[in-house]
């Protein structure tokens, strides 16, 4: 999708590019408390560019240690994936599957009141096409508690079942610190995590960038043993930039300008750190 930048004016640009809303509908939206992104306009990557400008960059790269304990890099034919929301419009999931896409994350919810209008169709049609799919929640930490947002997510698309085709839910963290201190943000994330795990039995994945995690959580290491990392790092390098506090990434969102058969226009492209059997292990909680 188009490069995401914060603010209603740029959200308007992205939405008009995608052809999903008019200027009048966007101007009518109110910003959630502490947010710079109108409710419903969030998607994976919307805050990436602005976060990297506003916050101090963390340039640590994924590397193997001497014992080879850190996951290997993404260079050796990693399984391809995508992440989508209503910005992609109607998707032909059979064509997506035929194009070789093995997994997808699909926007479900935002805050405690918004459900993506294309989620139900995308989630069902991806499943029917045989694409391993998961749901994601765009966080609005300034508006309500982590527990309330996790409950809303779990009740509106973020549930999980061991069926070979369902990944655990993902929490999308980006777009500024929402007026929270690093300690408050840590508490909010842990509140979301604990509630989601209580509801589903699974650890939620965390999507974020190195700059956001460093600035908004203080490079917190408290989630590294709990949540697999989805790293936002738009680069042509062999490996992503990994937020301090995590040893490696399980999924890497490496571009917002990908092209996939079955999707009209640009789409975020992802890589999985491991082979197809590891995607199934994550989906079925057998790892």
Q: What is the structure about, briefly put?
A:
The chain contains 9 helices and 9 strands. By secondary structure, the chain is an alpha/beta fold.
Structural account:
The chain is of the alpha/beta class and 287 residues long. The relative contact order is 0.19. It contains 9 helices and 9 strands. The model is unreliable at 1-28 and 58-72 (pLDDT under 50). It has helices spanning 8-18, 23-27, 48-54, 93-98, 119-129, 146-155, 182-200, 210-217, 276-284, and strands at residues 80-84, 103-110, 114-115, 132-138, 170-172, 205-208, 229-232, 251-258, 267-272. It is globular. Helix 6 packs parallel to helix 7 (182-200).
**Mean of all residue-level pLDDT scores:** 86
In angstroms, what separates the terminal alpha carbons? 32 Å
Apparent shape: globular
How many beta-strand runs?
9
The helical percent reads: 25-40%
Number of helices: 9
* Computed CA radius of gyration, to the nearest angstrom: 17 Å
- Profile the largest sheet: 8 strands, mixed, barrel
What portion of residues belong to β-strands? Answer: 15-25%
Oligomer: single chain
Give start-end ranges of low-pLDDT stretches: 1-28, 58-72
Order of helices and strands: HHHEHEEHEHEHEHEEEH
Structural class by secondary-structure content: alpha/beta
């Amino acid at each position: 999708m188009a490069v995401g930048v914060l603010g209603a004016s740029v959200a308007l640009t992205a939405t008009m590019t995608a052809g999903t809303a008019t200027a009048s509908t966007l101007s009518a939206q109110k910003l959630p408390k502490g947010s710079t992104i109108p409710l419903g306009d969030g998607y994976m990557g919307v805050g990436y560019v602005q976060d990297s400008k506003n916050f101090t960059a963390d340039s640590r790269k994924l590397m193997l240690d001497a014992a080879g304990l850190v996951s290997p890099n993404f260079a050796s034919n990693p399984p391809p994936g995508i992440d989508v929301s209503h910005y992609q419009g109607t998707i032909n999931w059979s064509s997506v599957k035929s194009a070789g896409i093995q997994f997808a994350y699909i926007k479900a919810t935002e805050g405690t009141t918004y459900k993506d209008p294309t989620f139900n169709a995308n989630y069902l049609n991806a499943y029917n096409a045989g694409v391993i799919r998961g749901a994601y929640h765009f966080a609005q930490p300034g508006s309500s508690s982590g527990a309330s947002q996790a409950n809303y997510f779990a009740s509106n698309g973020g549930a999980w079942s061991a069926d070979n085709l369902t990944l655990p839910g993902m929490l999308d963290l980006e777009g500024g610190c929402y007026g929270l201190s690093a300690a408050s943000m840590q508490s909010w994330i842990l509140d979301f995590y604990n509630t989601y795990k209580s509801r589903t039995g699974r650890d939620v994945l965390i999507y974020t960038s190195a700059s956001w995690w460093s600035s908004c959580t203080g490079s917190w290491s408290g989630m590294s043993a709990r949540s697999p990392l989805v790293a936002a790092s738009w680069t042509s390098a062999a490996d992503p930039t990994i937020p301090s506090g995590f040893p490696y990434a399980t999924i890497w969102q490496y571009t917002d300008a990908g092209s996939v058969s079955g999707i009209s226009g640009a789409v975020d492209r992802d890589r999985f750190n491991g082979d197809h059997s590891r995607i199934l292990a994550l989906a079925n909680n057998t790892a």
